[in-house]
Design a protein that fits this description.
Structural class: mainly alpha
Oligomer: single chain
Number of strands: 0
Strand content: under 5%
Radius of gyration: 23 Å
Distance between the termini: 42 Å
Largest sheet: none
Order of helices and strands: HHHHH
Shape: elongated
């Protein structure tokens, strides 16, 4: 099957994203119920939101620092799989949307997907159209 590695990577990224959402929601509920035993519910909700806002800010700063370090290296990705992995690393939401759109297009018209993928992976071929000497 064409793009088996790409499909496997996209499925793994989607599974990891779903697991991350479940973990964050569960952790938020656990923090809220832990705090609601000691303080009123409205204060527990506010503290839970503050904890997750701080965690999000720390994760954002870590991601920006990592992106700046990657930009300094300036590595050249060559294949479509490397491009997809780089997209998921740099912009996970955009990568997820692109994966969903690619999946939808693949389900609607597999031939079109093959043509688009071939266009991305095709190497420049030069033909000698002159006469043989």
């Amino acid at each position: 099957m064409f793009g088996r590695g790409l499909v496997t990577t996209l499925v793994a990224a989607a599974a990891a994203s779903a697991a991350a959402v479940v973990i964050v929601v569960s952790l938020g509920a656990a923090v809220f119920y832990l705090l609601s035993g000691f303080i009123p519910a409205w204060a527990a909700a506010a503290c839970t939101a503050l904890v997750f806002a701080l965690a999000g800010f720390i994760a954002y700063r870590a991601a920006v620092g990592a992106r700046e370090a990657e930009d300094a290296e300036e590595e050249e990705e060559v294949g479509i799989t490397d491009r997809a992995i780089a997209l998921f690393k740099q912009r996970p939401i955009l990568g997820t949307v692109a994966a969903l759109a690619a999946g939808f297009i693949f389900l609607r018209n597999p031939a079109l997907t093959t043509l688009v993928a071939a266009a991305f992976t095709e190497k420049a071929h030069t033909r000698n159209r002159g006469r043989r000497r």
